[in-house]
Design goal:
With 355 residues, the protein is an alpha/beta fold. The protein contains eleven helices and 19 strands. It has two domains: 180 residues, Medium-chain alcohol dehydrogenases, catalytic domain (Quinone Oxidoreductase, Chain A, domain 1), CATH 3.90.180.10; 128 residues, 3-Layer(aba) Sandwich (Rossmann fold), CATH 3.40.50.720. Helices cover 26% and strands 26% of the residues. The chain binds zinc ion (2 copies). The site of one zinc ion (ZN) has 11 residues, from helix 2.
């Protein structure tokens, strides 16, 4: 296969709600790197927050990290097997972890490779030199050494596979952080992409899921994704008070946290996932946490084993739940602005971009 000399890309340079189309020289992969042709990308909430100016990141940048691609070239030492032991070579369809970790820094050594101080974070890098093509809003993406790459089953629909390396893998990490949930009564606060995925993931892990969500359409969706019940947050708080073994908070709101705290039983666990942009401080009774023996944990991004769990969950169970309906519209790279504008509609769970 002959590769072009440049890759079409869409660059965000810090001016809110603007994108700049450009052509970036296509790098040839060196040792440990794969070059991937981007097949599709779904717009994650954090992409939109950056584009709208609510979240600061390195600029200029090629946004987009929820993506899948086909391998078109590999550097020396790349061929062999992926993290699941499957053969990996040019032509394979793949997903990959959002952070390529060094494996040696304190964060890596402590089991938080997603916080690697020397890592490459896809869709979050300054678009210069060999990191110019590391986002999904481009025709090609260069995978850095240390990236956990996972070969996908060809039968997995693009729409279902795209969110695997952000939404689904983060949910896998949150469920891991809950501990054993088989037979547990689990609360999920918020029924967007993460919450709906968590409903299905937790249900297939044996939990009984009870959702809090203000939007009626999202509550109906939560039931289709396996929740046994879904309530408005006010009713939810009174209905489940003191009874939940664990809660996964994905609404990212202070109200969501404050509603979830009294919902936990003695010894219960709360996993905070949704709060990824600045908010006001929350008044909390420390005595209440101590006397009720609660555990409260934050989770940001995920580990490579969570990505593998996510892919295996989607491959095994996606047919049981309407995952394919969650991406409501696809846009070409030339209309990325249209995609991000559509993604801001609260009725929308995900929109996608296909280069
Ligand atoms: Zn994301
Ligand atoms: Zn590291």
């Amino acid at each position: 296969m002959t590769l072009p000399e440049t890759s079409r890309a869409v660059v965000f340079d810090g001016v809110p709600r603007t994108f700049e189309p450009c052509d970036i020289p296509l790098p040839l992969p060196v040792e440990g790197e794969w070059l991937v042709r981007v097949v599709a990308m779904t717009v994650c909430g954090s992409d939109r927050h950056t584009w709208e100016g609510r979240r600061q990141g390195p600029i200029p940048t090629v946004l987009g990290h929820e993506m899948i691609g086909d391998i078109v070239a590999g550097g020396a030492g790349c061929a062999g097997h992926d993290r699941r032991g499957r053969p990996i070579e040019v032509g394979c369809r793949v997903t990959w972890a959002i952070v390529a970790a060094c494996g040696r820094c304190p964060a890596c050594m402590n089991g938080y490779p997603q916080k690697c101080t020397g890592g490459v974070k896809y869709g979050h890098e300054r678009a210069v030199g060999r990191r110019a093509l590391t986002g999904g809003l481009a025709e090609y993406c260069l995978l850095a050494p240390g990236t956990c790459v996972v070969v996908l089953d060809e039968a997995l629909p693009i729409t279902v596979a795209c969110p695997a390396n952000c939404a689904t893998a983060t949910v896998a990490g949150a469920i891991r952080a809950c501990g054993e949930i088989d037979g547990a009564k689990l609360g999920i606060v918020g029924a967007g992409m993460l919450g709906l995925t968590a409903c299905a993931f937790a249900t297939t892990s044996g939990a009984r899921v009870i959702v809090a969500e203000p939007d009626a359409a999202r509550r109906r969706r939560a039931l289709a994704f396996g929740a046994v019940a879904a309530f408005h947050p006010d009713q939810w708080a009174s209905g489940v008070a003191g009874s939940l073994d664990a809660v996964i908070e994905v609404s990212g709101t202070n109200a969501g946290f404050l509603a979830a705290l009294p919902a936990l039983r003695v010894g219960g666990t709360m996993i905070l996932v949704g709060s990824v942009s600045p908010s006001h401080d929350v008044p909390v009774s420390l005595e209440g946490i101590v006397r009720r023996c609660l555990s409260i944990r934050g989770l940001h991004n995920y580990r490579p084993d969570d990505l593998i769990a996510a892919v295996e969950f989607l491959e095994r169970h996606h047919g049981r739940y309407p995952f394919a309906e969650l991406v409501s519209e696809w846009f070409p790279l030339s209309d990325t602005t249209g995609a991000f504008t559509a993604a801001a509609d609260s009725a929308c769970i995900r929109v996608g971009v296909r280069p």
